[in-house]
User: Fold this.
Amino acid sequence: QVQLVESGGGLVQAGGSLRLSCAVSGLTFSSYTMGWFRQAPGKEREFVAASRWIGGRTYYADSVKGRFTISRDNAKITVYLQMNSLKSEDTAVYYCGATARASNNEYRITGDYTYWGQGTQVTVSS
Assistant:
């Protein structure tokens, strides 16, 4: 069974940092593009970052570019989201997704992903 389990969320002050982790099991990790999305209360799930499984290409939402970094450790079968200079508007539940399919839109669409984790809450206080 494929499982994606997010961790590392919590409460942090604005300007601080957090690193989210997504532990993956049940799939060939190196063959999957991994992505991070987030969803704030009353809003739709939005793209944050993605790491393509071929070519080493990464993609970021404009709102987080320069502050967040996606990375992956194939040995630990884990994808990370390093979040720096956090803002109150970063408050959301963060979800990890995985897909083995090619994307026509830089993996920015939720429909591109086959598997999802349960999410981890990130709260940024001002």
